[in-house]
């Protein structure tokens, strides 16, 4: 899902739970920020792959990559490795969950992340992508072992 939708829907979700559950402004803000800042792992992946810190180039590259890749038939997409997005999966959710026992504000971080991932699952279902890509990054690593590196990503910038 594109960042603008995560920001807009995360804001609406945060406002709703702010009023429905009488959250503090800090708690609702944490939910809002974590509902889209989780995508920082996309930027980290871009820095690792492209060796540049240019945020604008990163955004444009991901938009082009997404458009190009989704235009390919599903059977072609399935042949190539998935990106490792270390914040998108059950592993990171478990870390945040356990941190919430130490400091309860992590529960609001977890809520924002879960909302973000639910939006990603909807997007994945709509685009025909495999759900494992956003469920477990360990599973992505395992499934990537028998797949080819994606050559398309090297040419789009």
Keywords:
157 residues, mainly alpha
Give a description of the structure.
With 157 residues, the protein is mostly helical. It has one domain (3-155). Helix content is 71%, strand content 0%. The chain is built from ten helices and no strands. The protein has helices at 3-20, 25-37, 40-50, 55-71, 74-77, 90-99, 106-127, 132-135, 137-144, 152-155. Helix 1 (3-20) packs across helix 7 and helix 6 (90-99) packs antiparallel against helix 7 (106-127). The radius of gyration is 17 Å and the shape is globular. The two termini are 19 Å apart.
The helix content, as a percent range, equals: over 70%
Extended strand count: 0
What does the radius of gyration come to? 17 Å
**Tally the helices: what do you get?**
10
H/E element sequence: HHHHHHHHHH
The biggest beta sheet reads: none
Structural domain count: 1
Sequence stretches where pLDDT stays below 50 over 5 or more residues: none
Q: Write down the overall mean pLDDT.
A: 91
Share of residues in strands: under 5%
Broad structural category: mainly alpha
- Shape label: globular
Write the layout of secondary structure elements.
Elements: H1 3-20, H2 25-37, H3 40-50, H4 55-71, H5 74-77, H6 90-99, H7 106-127, H8 132-135, H9 137-144, H10 152-155
